[in-house]
Amino acid sequence: MIAAAFLLILQSAPVEAGVDAGAAPPPPASTCDAPVYMVVEGRTLDRTRMIAYGRAIAESRLYEQLGGYYVTVPRPLEVFEGEVAPDYVNLTVRFPCIENARAFWNSRAYRDDILPIRQDPPAGDYTVTIYAEAPLREDMVGRVGDNRFTADFSGAEIEQVDEPVVGPEARGDSE
Question: Which residues in the chain belong to E strands, given as ranges?
């Protein structure tokens, strides 16, 4: 039951004319060609609220609009090493590009309406990270899927929050 609930959970361009100067810019449509993975992992503290959170994400259709889809279920089939607490989850969502993952995370619908279901008060103790898709090894070419999206998921119509959350690369931080 909790696995099904979590599957529901997770279904810097110039400002253009006509866009409020204080609003976050939409993701650029032309650069969405490097898939990324959003990994959500941690402990669930309030299962009922997490089910409501997952339902709110599904009803928002943000994943559909931005090309996000689940590539894992949140609970392991087997554990080869170590112990996994019964309330621990690890869920992975694939997006066509970092811009679309950011557009999801910074959308007004997610930040204002959906995220508070999970965070106020905390329904879980989670980390949410983004990983680049590794290049396909040469020996695997033709042996697995082509690792690309064939539909356009520009996400330009998704309203963004005024102060978007972005990682160090987007902020220009050096490490």
Answer: 36-44, 69-70, 88-95, 124-132
Q: What is the pTM of this model?
A: 0.72
Contacts for 69 with CB less than 8 Å, ≥ 6 apart? 11, 63, 93, 94
Residue whose entry in the numeric block shows the structure tokens 């899927």:
145
Please give the distance of CA 129 from its chain centroid, rounded to a whole number: 8
pLDDT of residue 23: 54
Average pLDDT of 63-78? 93
Q: How far apart are CA 49 and CA 55, in angstroms?
A: 10
pLDDT above 80 (res 52): yes
Element (H or E) spanning 50, and its range? Answer: helix 47-60
CA dist list (Å): 34 to 13, 89, 94, 101, 144: 17, 26, 11, 11, 17
- Give the span between the Cα atoms of 138 and 116, in whole angstroms: 44
Query: Phi, psi at residue 105, to the nearest 5°?
Result: -60, -35
CA distance 10 to 161: 19
Report the b/e string of 52-73 with b at 16+ CB within 10 A: bbbbbbbebebbebbbbebebe
Helix axes 2-9, 47-60, angle to 10 degrees: 40
Is the N-terminal amide bond of 121 cis, ω within 30° of 0?
Answer: yes
